[in-house]
Design a protein that fits this description.
Layout: H1 2-28, H2 32-37, H3 39-61
Amino acid sequence: MKNGYVRILVIALINLAVAGVYFWVLGQLDMAEKVYADPTLFLLAGGGFSAVMIGVALLSAK
């Protein structure tokens, strides 16, 4: 039972790290204002980010 809680914690920390890298890259490329201003670009970036987050969770859950 304890192993399940550790696995959930690890998945949450990995997802937090991926989110940090995503927003850091957006900031370094000065893309944050462009992404949040254009609804289509925001949808594409958000969808890509969600796909990466789901993939990381599924890969680390195995």
